[in-house]
Amino acid sequence: MKMRAAVLERFGEPLVVQEVELAEPRAGEVLVRLVACGVCHTDLYTASGADPSGYAPAVLGHEGAGVVERVGEGVSSVSEGDHVVTLFSPQCRECIHCRDERTNLCLAIREEQNEGHLPDGSTRISRDGEEVRHFMGCSTFAEYTVMPEIALAKINPEAPFEHACLFACGLSTGLGAAINTAAVRAGSTCAVFGAGMVGLGAVAGCRLQGAERIICVDLSAERLELARGQGATDLLEGGEGTVERILEMTGGFGADYTFEATGSVAVMRQALEAARMGWGLCTVAGVAGKGETLDVIPRLLITGRRVAGSSFGGVKGRDQVPVLVDRYLAGEIDVAPFLSHRIGLDEVNRGFELMEAQDGIRSVIELS
Ligand SMILES: NC(=O)c1ccc[n+]([C@@H]2O[C@H](COP(=O)([O-])OP(=O)(O)OC[C@H]3O[C@@H](n4cnc5c(N)ncnc54)[C@H](O)[C@@H]3O)[C@@H](O)[C@H]2O)c1
Ligand SMILES: [Zn+2]
Ligand SMILES: [Zn+2]
């Protein structure tokens, strides 16, 4: 079938919205009609050429939500008409990682996905016979996509797509960092560095876990106000003296849990240094630049602080994204403030501009 999609033709140039060909889903695959898709930093990171593992031509986008249109042979967990959220981090439920509660890093299709192929090593997207690659296994800047069944979370159909799509990446990453990776204990003190989609999700996750105090640090007063709306109790402007301020605010000890959601290695260091002696856990969610390293004073570790990395918030997508969406529908998570701009597919490059200007938290592309 023919469909419209935003194609990355050349790194550093705007995406080109055009008609491409999408083939039928094969065994284990699903055709999804996309309804909404968030614009995320990772899309821009790849489009800019900064990502060393990027490839082109490819249809970008990975924060999608839509409706199952058709399923390929052997697909049993979703059927026509189901509402789904796309998962760049799949869950096969069979690999050694999927069967272990300690990680969400499914091993099933990593290599093919990194190459921009579906699990059988080919693409369903093409243009005049030339293959166009899939991005993060999703390619959701498009009217339709074909994805493996293991990369789709079936959600409650009552969830509006424009909110549901945010659970495909940043929001679940932040929520999960607090709920899964850190498993914040009730009554504790948390400090969240960064109040973008991920940091705000972490603030909400700390609140859901029953944290008593949630300090949020950002450079933008506007974003700190959004953090207050998600449950932050103390707001701090970031900078050089942030660690000292947090130590002062916590009787000299530091926070029980700290979260880094900026992508800056300097801030990662601050987050570790602001974690409490004895048991403070620093969860790193931000993605640092290629080649950058985190500077840690080993004594901080000996005296009981720990650092943990978190990919997609440790969320096992097919099992847990539907639960998070249900918690949103139950009124526990306020998603509306994150949706700043609704744009059409033709305006995808404006979505990047808004993101670069830090205008709002998320632009969402309305696809149908
Ligand atoms: N681990 C994962 O699976 C995963 C998933 C999605 C995104 N990410 C990464 O998480 C990070 C955050 O993503 P986002 O969408 O929220 O980004 P964002 O750019 O919207 O938010 C980052 C925030 O950090 C703030 N900030 C910058 N410097 C700061 C400082 N010195 N002190 C305090 N705050 C500071 C900015 O003002 C901004 O509000 C990025 O690095 C992104 O690549 C990771
Ligand atoms: Zn993303
Ligand atoms: Zn797996």
Count up the helices: 11
Average pLDDT over all residues = 97
Structural class category: alpha/beta
Give the overall shape.
Answer: globular
Describe this structure in words.
The protein is of the alpha/beta class and 368 residues long. The chain is 26% helix and 25% strand. It has 11 helices and 19 strands. The protein has helices spanning 41-48, 110-115, 161-164, 170-181, 197-208, 221-229, 242-249, 265-273, 298-302, 317-329, 348-356, and strands at residues 2-8, 16-22, 29-38, 58-59, 63-71, 83-86, 125-127, 130-131, 133-134, 144-148, 152-154, 189-193, 213-218, 234-237, 257-260, 281-284, 306-309, 339-344, 362-366. Strands 3, 5, 6, 10, 11, 18 and 19 form a 7-stranded mixed β-sheet that branches. Strands 8-7-2-1-4-9 form a 6-stranded mixed β-sheet, with no helix packed on it. The longest helix has 13 residues, at 317-329. The protein is globular, with a radius of gyration of 20 Å. The two termini are 16 Å apart. The model has no long low-confidence stretch (mean pLDDT 97). The chain binds nicotinamide-adenine-dinucleotide and zinc ion (2 copies).
List the helices and strands and how they pair.
Elements: E1 2-8, E2 16-22, E3 29-38, H1 41-48, E4 58-59, E5 63-71, E6 83-86, H2 110-115, E7 125-127, E8 130-131, E9 133-134, E10 144-148, E11 152-154, H3 161-164, H4 170-181, E12 189-193, H5 197-208, E13 213-218, H6 221-229, E14 234-237, H7 242-249, E15 257-260, H8 265-273, E16 281-284, H9 298-302, E17 306-309, H10 317-329, E18 339-344, H11 348-356, E19 362-366
Parallel strand pairs: 4-9, 12-13, 12-15, 13-14, 15-16, 16-17, 18-19
Antiparallel strand pairs: 1-2, 1-4, 2-7, 3-5, 3-10, 3-19, 5-6, 6-11, 7-8
Helix pairs in contact: 4-5
The structure holds nicotinamide-adenine-dinucleotide and zinc ion (2 copies).
